Amino acid sequence: MDSTEQRIKIAIQKSGRLTDHSLDLLERCGLKFTQSKDQLFCYGENMPIDLLLVRDDDIPGLVSDDVCDLGIAGLNVINEKRLGLLSSGGCAQFRQVFALDFGHCRLAIAAPYDVAYENVASLQGSRIATSYVQTLRHYLEKNNVQADIEYFSGAVEIAPKLGKADFICDLVSTGNTLTANQLVEVETVLQSEAVVIQTSAPLAEHKQQLVNRILQRLDGVLQVRESKYIMLHAPRSALAEIADLLPGSEYPTVIPLDSCDDKVAVHAVCRENVFWETLENLKEAGASSLLVLPVEKMLA
Ligand code: ATP
Ligand code: ZN
């Protein structure tokens, strides 16, 4: 078997909003890379896992066609590709395995300030400019609205000013671009964030094991992001109440304290952030010597 066939390929965005987050996430999984001169490929130094750096729109296709085993892209792009394949009689050969909690945005319909918009029925008979033709078509069908979809590959927000459309449907995060173009958001078509997709093609066993390992590490990295390790002393009598107050923790460890019968040490991983209010409530319930530490790695 050729050695390249034994390596895992992950497609990530070459240059854009998702690039730094994607690289950072993979590095936190313990992967080290060297980038090729043309910057289109990153060779995995310490594991047989390489990166392909491409336009985000190409990522679902590369994973569906089994050129890459995994990919990181926005749900907006993944959804558009899935619907596109379906409408041409095909089927997406990938599945979503994780939401990554970055790249948050929404695909939204926006109207010029001077348009009287009431509800989704106001879109009936209008022209809507978008790069997300499939997603918008699906949304309009679901809402029983007939409208003309005008394809724009970029700068969708200027379509109404050019007289090319009555509304636009585009990605929004802060809304600043809309405001700058005298547009107001009127409908949310899709809430999006970056996700990991995996090819549905069956992988050779050693490759599947490698994919499982990387997915397990990704899961660990995502879980610890908000997690904290909390240590405190508590009277035995207050243990039940204190355990209830620990946010998102399952099984606190209870350790006896030397020369102190009625007090114990409690250690727990909290899978949510621990705020000052929680510490104050714990103290009120009888806890003392409270210590909250960040968690760096976790393997369930
Ligand atoms: P390319 O096609 O060259 O890879 P792009 O211009 O399509 O780049 P970016 O603008 O970098 O892509 O956006 C990449 C992804 O980031 C989007 O598909 C979306 O999932 C997410 N995103 C988050 N916020 C926004 C936003 N305000 N506008 C556009 N995309 C956003
Ligand atoms: Zn793109």
Description:
It contains eight helices and 16 strands. The chain folds into three domains: about 5-100 and about 195-225, D-Maltodextrin-Binding Protein, domain 2 (3-Layer(aba) Sandwich), CATH 3.40.190; about 105-190, 3-Layer(aba) Sandwich (D-Maltodextrin-Binding Protein, domain 2), CATH 3.40.190; about 230-295, Alpha-Beta Plaits, CATH 3.30.70. By secondary structure, the chain is of the alpha+beta class. The protein has helices spanning about 20-30, 60-65, 75-85, 135-140, 175-180, 205-225, 240-245, 275-285, and strands at about 10-15, 35, 40-45, 50-55, 70-75, 95-100, 105-110, 125-130, 150, 165-170, 185-190, 195-200, 230-235, 255, 260-270, 290-295. The model has no long low-confidence stretch (mean pLDDT about 95). The longest helix has 22 residues, at about 205-225. The structure holds adenosine-5'-triphosphate and zinc ion.
Topology, pairings included?
Layout: E1 8-13, H1 19-28, E2 33-35, E3 41-44, E4 49-54, H2 59-64, E5 70-74, H3 75-87, E6 94-99, E7 105-112, E8 127-130, H4 133-142, E9 148-151, E10 167-172, H5 176-180, E11 183-192, E12 194-199, H6 205-226, E13 228-235, H7 239-245, E14 253-257, E15 260-270, H8 276-284, E16 288-294
Parallel strand pairs: 1-4, 1-5, 8-9, 8-10
Antiparallel strand pairs: 2-3, 3-4, 5-12, 6-12, 7-10, 7-11, 13-15, 13-16, 14-15
